[in-house]
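A common beginner's mistake is to predict each chain separately and then try to dock the pieces by hand. The better habit, illustrated here, is to supply every component at once so that their relative placement is modeled jointly.
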Amino acid sequence: MIRVQEQDFDIGAEIAGLKAGRTDIGAIVSFIGTVRDQDDNVSGMTLEHYPGMTEAELTKIETDAHARWPLQASLIVHRVGALKPGDNIVLVVTASAHREAAFDAAKFLMDYLKTSAPFWKRESSPSGDRWVEAKAGDEAAAARWRASKDAAG
Amino acid sequence: MRLLYFAWVKEKTGIAAEEVALPDDVATVGELIAWLKTRGPEYANAFERDEVIRAAIDQTHARHDAPIRGATEIAFFPPVTGG
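With all components supplied together, the output reads:
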């Protein structure tokens, strides 16, 4: 399941909802990305996105993860709008029978989300606003999954 | 055809969306970018570093050599920075 929303999320409630009524899950992995005040210089952040394409990309990434690993359930929640340092940005939860699939799939979801989901961060600081630049390391992280899939045939 | 701009591409063009009638010889994303650059200084500025501009055709990522024939919506934006 995927959601794009302005409001915050509650990881406990989200995981409880994911588990509700099921006993086939043996491992749950969660990741939360938060707004970091880099060098004590970020006073706020605005998340812009491409409504429609965002949901389509997140759904595609989630479908890809379910095709690669035996997942019982998964969840991606990404916030948009105005955020402050310390605020939650993104939640990824994966559930599987065993931990390996849940760990790997959670990392896969984040690596792909960071390079293909159409979100853009704008940071505010005392010296003005700036668009956050994409990191080459994020592209390399996503590329590693493509390489491992090719190697696996 | 509907064009959408996001993040600093939107700031530089000064608009979020517009409808355009394209010349017949504009066949790919790259040719569309080249045509947009001729439409004024704000477009020339927005698409100056065209190698960093990402595009989507009908909400799917597209390379600069992708054909645009039949598309209803083409979006231009910087590399994504979510997560």
